[in-house]
Design brief:
alpha+beta, Uridine Diphospho-n-acetylenolpyruvylglucosamine Reductase, domain 2, Uridine Diphospho-n-acetylenolpyruvylglucosamine Reductase, domain 3, Vanillyl-alcohol Oxidase, Chain A, domain 3, 3 domains, seven-stranded antiparallel β-sheet, 29% helix, binds flavin-adenine dinucleotide
C-alpha cells in the first residue's frame, strides 16, 4: 500500500501497476508513456517550441517526430485533417500547468485530449494538443473503495484493473474511450442504472485552471467548479488531472444478447418498452434497429435486424424470468443468456468499433417512453439509408435510462437529463474513399431521420455525444443548468481560454 502526495492511500503496488501497464502495452495500443524531456525535430523547431519542450517532463512531438503520426489523429477520422502544430505528452500536473501558461503567453490555441473520442473532434486542434493520455494510473483505497484515476485512463485500463478487486465504476464499452471526457460529460454504461453516471460517482477532481493554478475540487472546496465537472462537459473550465470515483461492489452478473428478424421489430420494441417501464435498477438494456456491419445472412440479405443487449446484477434464472415477455414477443434468430464472471463480462461487452468517419445525433425520450409510431418512423428511415463503405455506426440505438441515473435532482449536478426513459441515438458512418456526394447524402439522411423522430422525443441531447450540427446545443445539453454553468465559466475562465465550438459561453 502506498500514499499519494495528498495523503490518499493506494492499494495497487507499483509492481502491479507496472505489470498492468505491461499487459496493456503488450496489446500494442498504448503509446510511449513516460519519457524524459526531449527536444523537437531539431532545425525545424522554432525557439518557442523548444522553450516549451525544455519545460516538460513528458515529450513534445512536432510533425515528423516519431510518434506524432500515431498520436495526432482524433478517433473520429472525419476530423483527421486538423493537425496539431505540436503534441505535449504530459506526464504530470506540472506539465499541464506549464502547457497552459506557455500557450497563453504565446497566444497559441490549444485543446486537451484524453482518449480522443469526441464525436465532434473537439480534442483536435491546429495549435497545441495537450495530451494527458500517458497519465493513466489507477489507485484503489481499500478502506473507502474510492478509485483515483489519472485523466488518461481508458475503459480498457479499468477492464484490466478493477475485476481483481470486484469493484466497478460506471464505464462504457469502447476500450479506448478516455475517462478525461467520459466523466465530465456524464458517462454511462451497462452498470449505470444500478450505480448512476460516472459523474454521479465523482467525489473529487483536481483541475488546472486558466491561470495555471491546480485546484482540488469536491463538495467542500471549489464546490461550484466541482458541480460543473459533474456533467458540464469536457474542455470547458480547465484541465482535469485526475478523478476520484466511489467504486461499487459488482458481485454476481448475468448477460444477454438477443436478435430478431427486422419484420418483428414492432413487436420486440413494444415488449422492450414494457420491460423498461418496470425493470429493476439491476437490469440494463441497449436495443437497436441495426444495419449489419458484416455480410448479411442469406436468410435476410437486407442486413436489417432488431437486437437487445444488456447486463443483470444477479443470477441467470432471475434474468430469464425478467426477459421472458421480451423473448416471447417473436422468435429469436440469436440468443445468448448466461452468467459470466466480471472479467468475462467486460470482454463480452467490449466493443472494438473500428476507427472511422462518423456522425451521431442523440435525443432523450421522455418518462412515458416510446410508442409504435416512433418505431415505425425509425424503421422507415433505416430502410432509406443511402449506404456507404462503412457500416460501423449506422442505425437507431436506444439505451435504457432511469434507475440510479434518474434519481438525483436535475440541478444536483451539472447533468440535467434525469427524467428520461431512454437515450436514443441515430448515426451513420462512411469510408475514406466514399465520394463527397455520398457523404453529403449520409449527413442529410441522418439529419432528416433525427428531425422525423422529433414528435416522439424531448429536446434534450447527451453532451458526451457531441453533435456539431445541433442548433440548440446549449439548452439541449445543459437545459436549466446552463445559467449556472455560465457563472462557473466566468469565475474560473473569465477570458474564455478553454474554448471550442460548443464550449460553455461567458454570456447567454
Ligand atoms: C466508440 C465510442 C463509444 C462510446 N461509448 C460511450 C458510452 O458507452 N457511454 C458514454 O457515456 N459515452 C460514450 N462515448 C462518448 C464518450 O464518453 C465521449 O466522446 C467522451 O467525451 C470521450 O472522452 P475522451 O477522453 O475519449 O475524448 P476526448 O476527445 O479526449 O475528450 C472529449 C472532450 O473532453 C475534453 N477533455 C478531455 N480530457 C480532458 C481533461 N482531462 N480535462 C478537461 N477536459 C478534457 C476534450 O478537450 C474534449 O472537448 C463513446 C464514444 C465513442 C467514440
Amino acid at each position: 500500500m502506498e500514499e499519494t502526495a495528498d495523503g490518499r492511500s493506494i492499494a495497487f503496488s507499483r509492481r502491479e501497476l507496472i505489470q498492468g501497464a505491461g499487459v496493456l502495452l503488450g496489446a500494442g495500443v498504448v503509446g510511449a508513456g513516460v519519457s524524459s524531456c526531449s527536444s523537437t525535430s531539431g532545425s525545424t523547431a522554432s525557439s518557442k517550441w523548444q522553450e516549451l519542450a525544455a519545460q516538460l517532463t513528458g515529450t513534445l512531438l512536432r510533425p515528423g517526430d516519431p510518434g506524432y503520426g500515431r498520436m495526432a489523429p482524433p478517433y473520429n477520422r472525419r476530423y483527421v485533417d486538423v493537425e496539431p502544430q505540436a503534441i505535449a505528452e504530459c506526464t504530470t500536473e506540472t506539465d499541464i500547468q506549464r502547457c497552459v501558461s506557455w500557450a497563453r503567453h504565446h497566444g497559441v490555441p490549444f485543446v486537451v485530449r484524453s482518449g480522443g473520442h469526441s464525436y465532434a473532434g473537439y480534442s483536435a486542434t491546429g495549435g497545441l494538443l495537450i495530451s494527458v493520455a500517458s497519465m493513466r494510473s489507477i489507485a484503489l483505497d481499500p478502506a473507502t473503495k474510492r478509485v483515483t484515476l489519472g485523466a488518461g485512463v481508458q475503459n480498457r485500463h479499468l477492464f484490466a484493473s478493477l475485476p481483481r478487486y470486484d469493484v466497478g465504476v460506471p464505464n462504457g464499452r469502447c476500450p479506448t474511450v478516455g475517462m478525461g471526457g467520459f466523466v465530465l460529460g456524464g458517462g454511462f454504461g451497462f452498470n449505470s442504472r444500478k450505480y448512476g453516471l460516472a459523474s454521479d460517482n465523482l467525489v473529487q477532481t483536481r483541475v488546472v485552471t486558466s491561470d495555471g493554478h491546480l485546484l482540488v475540487c469536491d463538495a467542500n472546496q471549489h464546490s461550484d467548479l466541482f458541480w460543473a465537472c459533474r456533467g458540464g462537459g469536457g474542455g470547458n473550465f480547465g484541465i482535469n488531472v485526475d478523478y476520484v470515483l466511489q467504486s461499487q461492489p459488482v458481485g454476481e452478473l448475468s448477460l444477454y444478447k438477443v436478435r430478431w428478424k427486422w419484420s418483428d421489430a414492432p413487436a420486440v420494441m413494444a415488449a422492450a418498452q414494457v420491460l423498461q417501464a418496470s425493470a429493476p435498477d439491476a437490469l440494463s438494456a441497449r436495443v437497436g434497429l441495426d444495419v449489419a456491419s458484416t455480410t448479411p445472412p442469406a436468410e435476410d440479405p437486407s442486413g436489417l435486424s432488431v437486437s437487445a443487449l444488456g447486463q443483470f446484477f444477479g443470477p441467470v434464472d432471475q434474468l430469464e424470468t425478467l426477459l421472458a415477455p421480451l423473448l416471447a414477443a417473436a422468435p429469436t434468430t440469436e440468443k445468448v443468456i448466461r452468467s459470466m464472471d466480471y472479467t468475462e463480462a467486460l470482454a463480452f461487452f467490449a466493443q472494438n468499433v473500428p476507427v472511422g468517419r462518423f456522425t451521431e445525433k442523440s435525443v432523450y425520450i421522455g418518462p412515458d417512453g416510446f410508442d409504435a409510431s416512433f418505431v415505425e418512423t425509425g424503421m422507415t428511415w433505416i430502410e432509406k439509408w443511402p449506404g456507404s463503405a462503412n457500416v460501423t455506426a449506422v442505425g437507431l440505438t436506444l439505451f435504457a435510462w432511469g434507475g440510479a441515473m434518474g434519481r438525483p435532482a436535475p440541478d444536483a449536478t451539472a447533468f440535467v437529463h434525469r427524467d428520461a426513459s431512454w437515450l436514443s441515438v441515430v448515426g451513420t458512418s462512411w469510408g475514406p474513399d466514399d465520394p463527397q456526394e455520398l457523404i453529403e447524402e449520409n449527413l442529410q439522411w441522418v439529419g432528416q431521420f433525427f428531425d422525423a423522430l422529433g414528435p416522439y422525443v424531448t429536446d434534450q441531447s447527451y453532451q458526451n455525444f457531441a453533435d456539431p450540427a445541433l442548433d440548440n446545443w446549449q439548452t439541449a445539453y445543459y437545459g436549466t443548468n446552463l445559467p449556472r454553468l455560465v457563472d462557473v465559466k466566468r469565475t474560473y475562465d473569465p477570458e474564455n481560454v478553454f474554448t471550442f465550438p460548443q464550449g460553455i459561453p461567458l454570456h447567454i
